[in-house]
Amino acid sequence: MSTDIIDERSSKISQPVFIGILWALTDTSFFFVLFRVYVQISSFRRLFLDDFLVIFAWVIILSAAVIWHVEHKALYELYAISSGTKPFDFGFLPRFNEFMRLLAPLQILFYSSLWCVKFSFLVFFYRLCSRIKAFRIWWYVVLFCTAAVYIASVGDIEYKCSFGGINYILEQCSQLKHIHYENRSFWANCAGDVLTDLLILSIPIIVLWKTRVPLRKKVILLSIFSATVFIMIVAIIRVAVDTTYDQEINVAYVESSIVEYRGKKDFPKSTVHVQSDVEVSTVAVSQIEENKK
């Protein structure tokens, strides 16, 4: 990893802020999920499959937060060494290698949490409209596309730069070709994320368009389902702002950099943990509102 990139980014998110935001977001999404469970049990005396998928998504988020809480010190130690505020010693290398071995699993956890939310929406829509044949056909098309994008997103992770060992990581993974591959994969996965959200959003739109309900109710229902648009905006912000093709993705930014936003030009390039928490919180509320209709 090139030190000039680390120097440029390292001071923008301090350790306490990083951990504070990590747990604030995790706790916030937990209360949304808890509220969802309470409403579902109060209203229906049971939980449905889509509820369990949301709960599982939050468990994944919690697991990722715990891993980051335990292992983030190696990342900030790397920043300190790279910026010259801490002397290098060879004892750091095993800690750095251990940290790098966690990056691929953390990416898998991230994508798994997002896709649990997507599948929760799909299960929810199927439960509402499965009796319509045309809907079922389109639903299976969307399900296939959503599952395929998940497999591709997990499959294009550069596993060798996580599990390849310290020598390979230091010698190969900071080279431009690896940085380009990482950024292309990140952008492609973001595009797949947004595309699958649009496909999922098309399901209630198609159903409502063909359903004889008052226009006012259609608008209300569409506004509820359009909460997913906010999720898509967060996904786009992850890669659309302050990105360059030749620059490595900063992993501290990737987890919780939303705190730096003050309307500044230097808004961080990615908000991965933020997006996971936003998705879980959004689905926890939007499906409750629709169940009430």
Automatic annotation (TrEMBL):
<feature type="transmembrane region" description="Helical">
    <location>
        <begin position="219"/>
        <end position="241"/>
    </location>
</feature>
<feature type="transmembrane region" description="Helical">
    <location>
        <begin position="186"/>
        <end position="207"/>
    </location>
</feature>
<feature type="transmembrane region" description="Helical">
    <location>
        <begin position="17"/>
        <end position="39"/>
    </location>
</feature>
<dbReference type="InterPro" id="IPR052337">
    <property type="entry name" value="SAT4-like"/>
</dbReference>
<feature type="transmembrane region" description="Helical">
    <location>
        <begin position="137"/>
        <end position="155"/>
    </location>
</feature>
<keyword id="KW-1133">Transmembrane helix</keyword>
<keyword id="KW-0472">Membrane</keyword>
<protein>
    <recommendedName>
        <fullName>Rhodopsin domain-containing protein</fullName>
    </recommendedName>
</protein>
<dbReference type="Pfam" id="PF20684">
    <property type="entry name" value="Fung_rhodopsin"/>
</dbReference>
<feature type="transmembrane region" description="Helical">
    <location>
        <begin position="51"/>
        <end position="70"/>
    </location>
</feature>
<keyword id="KW-0812">Transmembrane</keyword>
<dbReference type="InterPro" id="IPR049326">
    <property type="entry name" value="Rhodopsin_dom_fungi"/>
</dbReference>
<dbReference type="GO" id="GO:0016020">
    <property type="term" value="C:membrane"/>
</dbReference>
<feature type="transmembrane region" description="Helical">
    <location>
        <begin position="102"/>
        <end position="125"/>
    </location>
</feature>
<feature type="domain" description="Rhodopsin">
    <location>
        <begin position="36"/>
        <end position="251"/>
    </location>
</feature>
<comment type="similarity">
    <text>Belongs to the SAT4 family.</text>
</comment>
